[in-house]
Input
Amino acid sequence: MFRFNLKVAAVAIPVALLLTACGGTTADSTDTAAPVASSEIRVDGSSTVAPLAAAAGELFKAENPNINVSVGTSGTGGGFAKFCAGETDISNASRQIKDEEAAECAAAGIEFTEIVVANDALTVVVNKANTWATCLTIEELNKMWAPESEGTVTSWSQIRAGFPDVPLDLYGAGTDSGTFDYFTKEINGEEGASRTDYNPTEDDNVTVQGVEGAEGAIGYFGLSYFEENADKLTAVEIDGGAGCVAPNSANAQAGTYAPLGRPLFIYASKTAAAKPEVLSFLEFFVANDDAITTKALFVPLSADQKTAAQAAVAGLK
Output
């Protein structure tokens, strides 16, 4: 299984991947622009979307060896701050841009296009020794994470009758993360509303290590990070009101993994897209969605989403 180590401020994509590794690359990839002079495409933002952008960069570089794609993980909010300051060409996002962020871009003269590039099943994970929490309701997750639970809900026995008296050890996304915004809105009813006595991080590997290290630990992140660490963690099924549903690609694409199924985005600066290497990369990204999402362990776009993504990129020309 290919695994990306992206948890640094900026990661240059290596040349190690051979073209033969592309596997499912579609014939449409031949329509991308010809290689240009050595240059760098700057990408930052969501840690959830980072492995997807890195996979796209790896496969793109195999065909365009003079172009490097650097991928940073400042979180969705941090990425938009850099994007609106003109510091990046593309911003990864696990939620749509907020009105105030769009206004910041507009004030700086940054025009952009939103492109949906994959789907995700936001995955709740527990320690392998946790044999009781195989399925949790939205109400139970709210009881764990609601602001009013801070300092008072501290044991699994308080979540459901019959659960053991094991300390509740919470791991989650940092406040700059689009995953934090999405999770808190869907679980607590308001974006950003969360207890603060948990272990926040923009580095999903920290959540992996924390949940792996304590019997009563629980955390959440994108499906791809669980699939990379399925030998260390257990994914919890979610009951959104229609019974327990597992987080997986089929359920996410079918829309049955509710309410934690979500689309993932990249935002492209129109100024950056005027550069041939950036436009070529964007064209490659949407033309080779199946190969990229498969390599990075993401949920591919539906047929309608692919059409919309290709139209969005075409509109940048």
